[in-house]
Write a structure and sequence with these properties.
Blueprint lengths: L1 H16 L23 E9 L3 E9 L4 E10 L10 E2 L3 E9 L7 E7 L3 E4 L4 E4 L1 E11 L5 E12 L2 E15 L3 E10 L6 E11 L2 E8 L6 E11 L1
Antiparallel strand pairs: 1-2, 1-15, 2-3, 3-4, 3-5, 5-6, 6-9, 7-8, 9-10, 10-11, 11-12, 12-13, 13-14, 14-15
Length: 232
Amino acid sequence: MKRILILFLPLLLFAAAARGAVREDVYFIDTPSASILPARSFGINTRVISAGGMLAYFDFAISGRFSIGVSETIEHLIGTNEQNIKLLAPALQLKLRAYDGSDDMPALAVGFDNQGFAYDHDEHKYLQTARGAYITAVKEIIAPGLIAALGANITVNGFEFDKPACFAGAAYNIADIFSVMAEWDNIRNIADSRANGGVRVYLYDSFSFDFALRNFNNKAERIIQLKYALAI
């Protein structure tokens, strides 16, 4: 519990004191949206993962169209297990908003993300390969507040390109208080694909809280995320 408070209390304090609050959903759960943080904005996403681990994303918007980020996985950080805390190699995220969209056309973004999931120390690789190079198209459909995303990607192991895949996601925003999210990720075949679902609660413009289930069509993983963004 002390470790959890140490990790999350600074974010809570920042959110309460934020003057340049930013509200922009750059991801659904794992699926990238076409959004970018406003120019000179900084975002932090902390995700509690299985086995007492934590995945932290740090994102900086150089302009209103391009952002660069880095992520770090820390294993065995939370809990009472006797295993040593381990830091895995950091990963890189790049994103360019290529088109803002129109009444008839979706917004488009291209990017790169080599953050994998579920690291296997025996095989020295992630069991769930990183998204890699991707393009995503996002548009509001059918009803106000219902956002859909569709994209394609080439997965990577580190910086080595692997296999083509595609992904789809949707989020329904209710009264700007919370969103219900669903994704179908890593679509190559049914066995390798991942179904994700979750809820995002907006505590402040700059601060939101997610509870989600990843890969619930295979072996479900419960995750908790805290997201914070600030214009600097």
